[in-house]
Amino acid sequence: MKVTPRFNRRTGAVWASLMVAALWGIDQGIKHYVEATMHLGQRITVIDGVLWWHYILNPGAAFSMGSSVTWVFTLAMVVAVAVCIYCLYRARAIWWVLSLSLLMGGVLGNLTDRLFRPPGFAVGHVVDYISVQHFAIFNFADMCICVSMGCIVVLVMLGVHLDGTVETSTREKVDHD
Known about the structure:
Number of helices: 5
Structural class: alpha+beta
Distance between the termini: 15 Å
Radius of gyration: 19 Å
Number of strands: 6
Oligomer: single chain
Strand order of the largest sheet: 2-3-4-5
């Protein structure tokens, strides 16, 4: 088995904590800035025909789906945070620590909105503000979640375990015998 670059438990925890706090802070800071400088529904062109700042409140999940069951997304986010904490506790591989921290920072950003924004606790609407033509309106936390999931898929496909060991394929074992 190969081994990827790894953290010890303490170093991994420090890096994860710093990264999660920074990502959460960036997300919440941008959302507060958008709320303070734009009015609901306002759209500002960034790149004509491609990208806009568009301030909306999203009661649902991706593409505003499930807006009548917002509490389900809140519960799913709480579970996701718990899973991230569990996996981060076990993770030693640098790429796993970074990917899980990115995921947790994004989930906590949107969970904060669900818990503390109107219309009420656990059913709050998420502040979205990045609009891409023919796509969706999303936010920084959503970007963190999507990028982290892409990284996690790559890590799984490469056979990198949380502890930093790398699964060698059956084909490699046969070729080396």
